[in-house]
Design goal:
mainly alpha; MDM2; two-stranded antiparallel ribbon; 6 helices; 2 strands; globular
């Protein structure tokens, strides 16, 4: 009987490969302030965020106690609207304002 139950189960539908969201992959032009960190060439939003994180790690700007916060240096303050500390979630929103 166990063999009949196993055969009675339907095969799971095959999963299709996940397609990246076209909006995230569209090349965007950074503002002058953002270009100081990521370069002035048009690039996808995902690449911009990767480069900002590389800059943050290289310059040791992630808060030691509260890892979700970024302590801005003079270059990042321009991007963050003059704020000294920004959460990583708020950072993405602020960076989007510098892309067109």
């Amino acid at each position: 009987m166990a063999a009949k139950k196993a055969a009675a189960k339907k095969a799971a539908p095959k999963k299709t490969a996940r397609k990246p969201n076209a909006a995230f992959m569209k090349p965007m032009t950074p503002s002058a302030a953002l270009a100081k960190v990521v370069g002035d060439k048009a690039q996808p939003r995902t690449e911009v965020v990767k480069k900002i994180w590389a800059y943050i790690k290289k310059n040791n700007l992630q808060d030691k106690k509260e890892k979700r916060n970024i302590n801005a240096d003079e270059t990042l303050k321009e991007i963050f609207g003059g704020k000294k500390t920004v959460s990583m979630f708020e950072m993405t929103k602020l960076v989007n304002g510098h892309l067109s």
